[in-house]
Structure formats: structure tokens, C-alpha cells
């Protein structure tokens, strides 16, 4: 048997004999035993602590190796185990309940210089939980009741964050989120092998975004219109690299949801505590930025347009073929303090870096003569779009 197989066999013989000293002796200190989907144990103390607790909670714990397959420095060990949760020790926070378990699993062990340097341990934790009575048996009355409760929660979540993508143009879909009237907009842009996400909405929208994108081939990249908390919120939870304008990078990678120029005193008194509470709630935290975009870059058939003012590095996307513009918070199409929807307007001064630059950017957008403008919130601007935008640019808020 190959050396890796010998070391793996020695390790499992030690565990089968409840010999913790021998078990940790074959590990290189500092190496990781990864219990996939659960936790990571750092050798030697983490392994000693975990299996010591396991043997105390399951005093009759028996382990049998079914098969060892080894090649070079790696060995795969199929095993089965059984035991009684009899205590006296707790395990993973649970008190012994006398449940009997019988499980199978597989460990993939990597060896270097006759010591284990890594392990990935695979076991069906759901099956273990059912055998311990922590989850109901599949097909049981309790299982069906649990499914009903889960479905109610799913419907409630979907009522807040749409679980489907709404087609708004050729190759462009909208996901709406936010409570109570779903005014946070996230856009999915078709790519040859998936989608680009433009703007990332709020933290709670991440599952809906990921699910919608999965049905379209998955997320290839996330592009932030800007780094305010209600536009970067879901980005940390999305499985793709994130991009933004260079002027937004520091804010995107910061843990702080409030930007230095935010001034909540410019809001009406009743709105100040709402935004003071909700901005951190909407935020998903700092975002690792993989790269930056700038004026003229091409993204999924759109051209990047720099539209600073609301935020220093705010960008929009413009597609010449149908004159469609996706512009994040270059404009608002609702009153953020009342939720009333309406025509385009300069974003609220409580959240603008520069009202003058915001106004100039709206005029720049109007000069593109877009046919439809979708903003970061609420509904699109249609009809005489350029005329409405120029009127909005002239109406400086106070």
C-alpha cells in the first residue's frame, strides 16, 4: 500500500481505538481537518478536542474502514460508524438523548513527509441530525409540517424580494427587492455563458439574485453602479468577482455603511431614524473589489458612462442599439421619504456628494437621448425622456 494509505490507515486505527494520542501524532501541527459543510479543526488541539467530545458523548462509538484508495500523496478512506448518544458529555451543544446512529462517510487525506497535512471529511450531516432526532424523519408527519413552515417562510421572503427576474429589455432582467414596496432594483445582463449583475441591491436580496442568475447560467461578475449600502448590499454574498469605478473602490471595501458626506439632518425629522437604522440593515458589509471600470468600457453590450454627483464614482450603462440606460442613483423616480413614485429628480441632497455634479450628470445623460432610463429604485423613465431629465437637472433640491 502506498505511504499515504499507510498513514491514513494508522490514523483510522487510532480513532477506532479511541486513542487520541496516536491519532494526533500522525498530524502535522497547524494542518486543517475540514469537516465539509460544518467546521474546520486545527491540528493537534482541535482534532483532540473534537474527537474527545465525540467519544465522551458516544462511549460505544465504533469505526470501521470499508475501503482505502491511495495514490501518491493522497488517500481516500470510506468508512462506517455507529454509536449511542449516551453521554455523559454533551456534543456540539446538544445533551445526550440516547439516540442510536449508523452513518457512512469518506475522508480524503493528504500526506507529506509521513504526516497528514490536510483532510476533507464528507458525511451526510442531515442524515446524522435525523438519526439524532434533531430533524424529523423523511416522509414523516413532522417532516411534512416542517416543509409547510419552510414554504411559508419562502413565500414571505419572496413577497419582499422577488424570486423571479422580470424581463425589461432584450437580454436585460430586473429583480425588485426591499420592504414594503420592493423599490430596490438589481439588473441581470445576458452574457454568452451567464449574466452580469449590475448594482447589488440590499443584503437580503442575495438569495433571490443568485437563484435567478443560476437559472441563466450563473453570475459571471458583479458591477456596482456605486458603493452605497443599498447598492452593494448583496455583493459580498454573490459568488462572482465584483467591479466598480476607481472612485468607489475605497467605499466598497470599507466596513462603514455611512459615507462621509451623508447628512441625515437634511431629511424630514420622521425619516432620520428610519434611514439611520435601515442603512446598516441593508448593507452586507465590505466588498472585495476585483477590478475597476471607467468611461467607455464595454460591459455585456453596454458602454460605461461616468455620472458622478450622487456618489463620486457613480456609473451608468448605455446601450446604443436600443438607447437603453441603466443609471443606478443618477436619478430618483420616487420620494425616498414617502415612497411615492413619480418622474425623475435629482437624488435627495442628504445622500449626494455634490448636487451640482449630480445635476450636470443628469444633463449628460439627457444628451445621450435615451429611449428608456431605469434607475436604482422604482420605475423607469419613458416618453420624452431627455426633456424630463433636463427638467430634473434644472430643479435643484433644497
General description of the model:
The structure is a single chain. 29% of the residues lie in helices and 30% in strands. By secondary structure, the chain is an alpha+beta fold. The protein folds into two domains: 3-135, Nuclear Transport Factor 2, Chain: A (Roll), CATH 3.10.450.50; 162-394, Ribonuclease Z/Hydroxyacylglutathione hydrolase-like (Metallo-beta-lactamase, Chain A, 4-Layer Sandwich). β1 and β2 (39-42) form a beta hairpin. α10 (355-367) packs antiparallel against α11 (385-394). The longest helix has 20 residues, at 141-160. The relative contact order is 0.08.
Strand order of the largest sheet: 7-8-9-10-11-12-13
> What number of structural domains do the residues give?
2
CATH topology of the largest domain: Metallo-beta-lactamase, Chain A
CATH superfamily of the largest domain: Ribonuclease Z/Hydroxyacylglutathione hydrolase-like
Task: Note the topology.
Blueprint (H helix, E strand, L loop, with lengths): L2 H14 L3 H6 L1 E9 L3 E4 L2 H13 L4 E10 L2 E11 L15 E13 L2 E9 L1 H7 L9 H20 L5 E4 L2 E6 L6 E8 L2 E5 L7 H9 L4 E5 L5 H4 L9 E4 H7 L19 H11 L6 E5 L4 E2 L2 E5 L8 E5 L4 E3 L5 E3 L6 E5 L9 H13 L4 E3 L10 H10 L4
Parallel strand pairs: 1-6, 10-11, 11-12, 12-13, 17-20
Antiparallel strand pairs: 1-2, 3-4, 4-5, 5-6, 7-8, 8-9, 9-10, 14-15, 15-16, 16-17, 18-19
Helix pairs in contact: 10-11
Amino acid at each position: 500500500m502506498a505511504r499515504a494509505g499507510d498513514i491514513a490507515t494508522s490514523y483510522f486505527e487510532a480513532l477506532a481505538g479511541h486513542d487520541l494520542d496516536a491519532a494526533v501524532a500522525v498530524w502535522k501541527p497547524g494542518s486543517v481537518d475540514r469537516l465539509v459543510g460544518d467546521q474546520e479543526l486545527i491540528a493537534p488541539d482541535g482534532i483532540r478536542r473534537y474527537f474527545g467530545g465525540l467519544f465522551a458523548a458516544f462511549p460505544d462509538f465504533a469505526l470501521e474502514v470499508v475501503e482505502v484508495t491511495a495514490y501518491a500523496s493522497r488517500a481516500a478512506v470510506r468508512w462506517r460508524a455507529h454509536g449511542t448518544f449516551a453521554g455523559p458529555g454533551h456534543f456540539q451543544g446538544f445533551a445526550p438523548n440516547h439516540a442510536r446512529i449508523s452513518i457512512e462517510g469518506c475522508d480524503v487525506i493528504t500526506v507529506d513527509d509521513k504526516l497528514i497535512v490536510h483532510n476533507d471529511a464528507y458525511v451526510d450531516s442531515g442524515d446524522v441530525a435525523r438519526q439524532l432526532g434533531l430533524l424529523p424523519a423523511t416522509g414523516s408527519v413532522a417532516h411534512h409540517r416542517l416543509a409547510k413552515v419552510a414554504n411559508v417562510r419562502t413565500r414571505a421572503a419572496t413577497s419582499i424580494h422577488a424570486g423571479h427576474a422580470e424581463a425589461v429589455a432584450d437580454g436585460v432582467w430586473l429583480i425588485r427587492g426591499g420592504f414594503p414596496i420592493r423599490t430596490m432594483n438589481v439588473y441581470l445582463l445576458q452574457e454568452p455563458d451567464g449574466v452580469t449583475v449590475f448594482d447589488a441591491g440590499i443584503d437580503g436580496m442575495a438569495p433571490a439574485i443568485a437563484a435567478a442568475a443560476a437559472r441563466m447560467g450563473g453570475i459571471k461578475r458583479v458591477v456596482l453602479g456605486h458603493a452605497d449600502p443599498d447598492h452593494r448590499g448583496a455583493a459580498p454574498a454573490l459568488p462572482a468577482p465584483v467591479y466598480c469605478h476607481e472612485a468607489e473602490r475605497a467605499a466598497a471595501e470599507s466596513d462603514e455603511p455611512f459615507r462621509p458626506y451623508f447628512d441625515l439632518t437634511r431629511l424630514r425629522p420622521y425619516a432620520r431614524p428610519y434611514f439611520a437604522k435601515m442603512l446598516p440593515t441593508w448593507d452586507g458589509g465590505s466588498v472585495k473589489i476585483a477590478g475597476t471600470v471607467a468611461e467607455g468600457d464595454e460591459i455585456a453590450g453596454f458602454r460605461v458612462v461616468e455620472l458622478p454627483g450622487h456618489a463620486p464614482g457613480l456609473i451608468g450603462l448605455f446601450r446604443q442599439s436600443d438607447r437603453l440606460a441603466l443609471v443606478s442613483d443618477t436619478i430618483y423616480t420616487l420620494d425616498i421619504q414617502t415612497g411615492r413614485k413619480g418622474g425623475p429628480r435629482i437624488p435627495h441632497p442628504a445622500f449626494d456628494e455634490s448636487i451640482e455634479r449630480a445635476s450636470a450628470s443628469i444633463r449628460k445623460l439627457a444628451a445621450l437621448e435615451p429611449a428608456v432610463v431605469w434607475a436604482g429604485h422604482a420605475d423607469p423613465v419613458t416618453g420624452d425622456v431627455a426633456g424630463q431629465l433636463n427638467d430634473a437637472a434644472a430643479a435643484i433640491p433644497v
